[in-house]
Every structure is written in C-alpha cells, then in structure tokens.
Amino acid sequence: MAIETILLAVGPMDAVRAEELAETTLELADPLDATVVIGHAFSADSYEDFREHLGFEERLEDVDPDEVAAQRPPVPELEELIEDAGVGTEIRGIVSDVDTGVVDLAEEVGADRAIIAGQRGSPAQRAVLGSVSKRIMTDAPCPVTYFRDLDVME
Fold first, then answer.
1. What residues contact 114, with CB distance under 8 A and at least 6 apart?
2. List of residues 6+ apart from 21 with CB closer than 8 A
3. 86: Cα separation from own chain's centroid
4. For 1-49, how does the pLDDT look when each residue is reduced to its tens digit (9 = 90+)?
C-alpha cells in the first residue's frame, strides 16, 4: 500500500512540540512524496472561542473550520516547517469530539497514515475518561503513528 496522504492531527497543546512533530512527519512524508494534511479537531466550545478571538463575526455554522484551523497554533508553524522542506500541505478543520473528529478527517482525506500526539494522564484519569489517542488508534481507517514527546510529558 502506497502512502500518498498523511494526516497530522494536532491540537493547541502541540504548539510546544511543533518542530519535533514536523520532523517526525517529514521522516515519512518526504521520501514518499506524500501530501501532509494538517488537521485540527475542535470541540464546539473551543471552536467558538477561537473563532471569536480571530474576529470572525459570522455564526458558528457559517465559518469554515478549515479557515479557523489555518490560524490556530500550531497549524501555521507546522505548515511553514513542512512546506519549507518541499512537502505539500493541506489544512483541514472539523468541529466534533476530538477522537471522532480525527477519525472523520482521516476518512474524508483518504489518509494512508495518521500521526497523532498524545498527552499524559494519570492511570485513574485514563480509566475513568478513556484515552482520546486510544480511541483514535482503534477507530482510524489507517495505521496510526503515536508521537510521544517525553520532554513535554514530564
């Protein structure tokens, strides 16, 4: 199976590790000449807050999530880092629960691989709330690479 499209799913917490995420993504995308889709899944509340912060005055349903995602850190930095390496990018946003949103984005763009970055939670938190990363890995329509930055996790 050829890898032509890679979904790099990010959130606001990933701003501190944008360079490392770009490097990890480029290790796969560059030699394969794959397109990287930088995706951001927004909860309805976070989308509304960030949309207002950007000055969009239209109603929630009238603003394209791709436009909002394109301005949400770390997306612009990742786009620049990846494009500077000569790899094509596309920006996609979706308003949904994060786990189902990432899975939906992977399906919509026809991702051959997804890269996600996880956050650390206590064992009790994971037992009660579950793991967004785990749900993405089990439900994604493609293989998933899990990026774990130990410096951020400490």
1. 6, 7, 8, 9, 102, 106, 136, 140, 142, 143, 144, 145
2. 8, 10, 14, 74, 78, 115, 117, 147
3. 20
4. 689 999 999 988 888 899 999 999 999 999 999 999 999 998 877 877 7
Burial code (b: 16+ CB inside 10 Å, e: under 16) for 102-112 equals bbbbbeebebb
Q: How far apart are CA 20 and CA 75, in angstroms?
A: 13
Look-up: residue for tokens 């850190």? 73
Dump the DSSP string for 4-44. -EEEEEE-GGGGGGHHHHHHHHHHHHHHHT-EEEEEEEE-H
For the chain, the 3-state helix, strand and coil shares in percent, each to the nearest 5, are 55, 20, 30
**pLDDT of 47-75, one tens digit each?**
777 767 766 665 556 678 898 899 889 99
Please name each of the domains of the chain with its CATH number.
Answer: 5-122 (3.40.50.620)
CA angle, 10 then 109 then 59, to 5°: 65
